[in-house]
Amino acid sequence: MGIGNQLREWAERNVGAAESDDAVVVKTTRYLRLSMIVLVIGLAAAILTEYSKSHLKGGGSGHCWQPSISAYYYTPVQLVFVGALVAIGITLIVLKGSTELEDVFLNFAGILAPVVAFVPTPNVGECGSVLTDTANRGVNISNNVTALLIMAGVALAVLALLKWLDQPATSPPGLKAPKDEALAHRIAMVGYVAVGALYIAALALFLLNRPLFNAKAHWGAAITMFAFIILAVINNAINFYFTRKQVEAERAANSTADGSKAAKPLNRYAVIAALMVATPFAVVPWAGDYKAIWLEAILITLFTAFWVIQTQELWNHGLRTPEGVLATLQEPQGAPRNDIPGPDHAP
């Protein structure tokens, strides 16, 4: 039998999806989370490679650091910096949070990430293997931010159209109590309105006061992006706590054990949230001219740790569920299982 006939028979046998809908969704969210981790690693690798070849602008020997990660835009790291931020931003928007609040926080952080990339910091810095100047900064911002605003405007319009057509749903009917379902829809709507207000404010500033936009948009977007990331981590810590509390209460009610209590695993999201909140207070007083890069490096490291932990927790479920939290309480820490619950496969 020729290779052509073999391929034809294979195509005839493999009609439709290879896996269940649930498995496809879980694997998609799994790899989106993994991609976020890989993107941060890639950015770190580009910066460390540049550090190995760096020197001060005025010459001299020895390696040096830029005053901020954002300042690496003006070094050979530029393409990785912009590409990573845009990809991370899209991933943050695409990923559905386990709660409506987390989803709103991730959406805001994701929307701001491309602004950080497309509006480079005005501070070029003095360190690099090669340093570009700011001669074309204004032209680049004008072109890239115009495209970004058009894309964002189209996205907001499409979401409004889908809402008008009654297409989107926060959760499938019957998954939540009517009261909780209504609250979820209200949170989603408030988030949409807030994003719309941010879009209008950015558009107005971009059109009416370009010098102010070019001077302030980068750090305004960067600080706000990190704030929403921290809020997402805090929300995860709270949601994990109450989900685990519910699971433990149900397990205790159904248990016939002797009443002894197992030790609770540490709420790692709470630890990361506390470290993120404490970072500015710990770094700013002593870091001097390098406080920005220290802040960014520590927060990005904690952000990566958060995604590693969340990827591990949600490996088999995609979103946080009582069954998923129960699995984390019952199973030893280590490599996650590969089984994925499908429509006829209870977790």
Describe the structure.
There is one protein chain. By secondary structure, this protein is mostly helical. The protein has one domain (about 25-250, about 265-330). The chain contains ten helices and no strands. It has helices at about 5-15, 20-50, 80-95, 100-120, 135-165, 180-210, 210-255, 270-285, 290-315, 320-330. Helix 6 (about 180-210) runs antiparallel to helix 7 (about 210-255) and helix 7 packs across helix 10. It is globular.
Sheet/helix structural class: mainly alpha
**Alpha-carbon distance between the two ends:** 43 Å
Instruction: State the domain count.
Output: 1
User: What is the succession of H and E elements?
Assistant: HHHHHHHHHH
Radius of gyration: 24 Å
**Poorly predicted tracts of residues:** 341-347
Biggest sheet: strands, sense, closure? none
Roughly how much helix do the residues carry, as a percent range? 55-70%
| Oligomeric description of these chains | single chain
| Contiguous helical run count | 10
Shape: globular
Average pLDDT, all residues: 85
Instruction: Please give the number of β-strands.
Output: 0
Residues in β-strands, percent: under 5%
